[in-house]
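ERR on first pass: missing label on line 2. Operator R.T. fixed the label and resubmitted. Corrected input:
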Amino acid sequence: MTPKKPGFGAYPLRYLALGLMMKGPSHGYQLDQTLDEDFGMIWKAGQTKLYVTLSTLEEEGLLRSEIEPQENRPDRKVYHLTAKGKNAFLNWVHEPVPSLRAVRVELIAKLRFFYLLQLTGASELIQQQERIFQEMIREWGLEKEHEDDPFLRLVYDFRINHARFIIDWLDTYQNIAT
Amino acid sequence: MTPKKPGFGAYPLRYLALGLMMKGPSHGYQLDQTLDEDFGMIWKAGQTKLYVTLSTLEEEGLLRSEIEPQENRPDRKVYHLTAKGKNAFLNWVHEPVPSLRAVRVELIAKLRFFYLLQLTGASELIQQQERIFQEMIREWGLEKEHEDDPFLRLVYDFRINHARFIIDWLDTYQNIAT
DNA sequence: ACGGGCATGTAAGATGTTACATGATTTC
DNA sequence: GAAATCATGTAACATCTTACATGCCCGT
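pass 2 clean. output:
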């Protein structure tokens, strides 16, 4: 009955689909192409997956659709955002991601939308995100239990430096792109 | 009929389970505890998942089991590696990972096994891995199509530096731990 | 008499993927 | 006449996760 865990794979596609319609109504085939143009380097979704996602989104009330008849071409099913859908997207896009591994795809997708849709609040998002990662670094630094295990020290070292690398990149991004 | 795509979530657990038995036969409950002790900081698997994985592995002929009766305790199902299972583990553990995102969990798990089981070849694995990532950097550097899009430049910058960070860490690891 | 440890699974449910179905039009 | 583009989906399959089932022993 409840979605609970949206699954790592399907999670962003919902929001990518919603986000693409922020510029106006569109139909599956076109969305698939726009997705490839604007997010192709970040995210590859099969065409069919997108259609499935769109149906789901309509069932959930985040989208609504009308059929647009065409001559000499198959009819189009044109979707547009509902208020609920717009809201869901805006909440998502302003929300920092909870983990380092979500940066590569999900956070970058969010930043992409800030850029493409010229949304405000990118700086705030980046700053929130940095604070979250700084807090992780602080907590990992406190873990003293692994002092006897050299392997664990290296793992924590990896994580801490990974987080630092991402924070640095976010700083660079903020300076250049906002 | 064929496994094809093992799925990102289940993939390492198979090999973790096999690897844990390299030290000798063991049963599900114990494996669950060892897994938590040795890999807890890297990987959390529910107890049930492990049992399911063990059954699957036995069906595939990578493990075999005997029941060990106990007094005043439930019987144990003691698994041991078959030749095929041992082989599958050794192949996996020496195989570099294909992507940056697989480093955090999968590559580190492999390195953990080199450490715990005192296997030879860690240096070779690290060097192969570095070559793979260096090749990625080279390819990303060649992508000139995104020169007009400042966002894409930043994304490629992110990837390249991400790969560099990981290569650096691998160097450090190799110097300290091998 | 109850919580925790020991020990193992099954079966159902949720989720994700993709092969296939359809069919007209335009371009080579 | 073959291939690509336009346009959409269904239904089956594969995979993953977890709620639940079972049951004894030990300590407090």
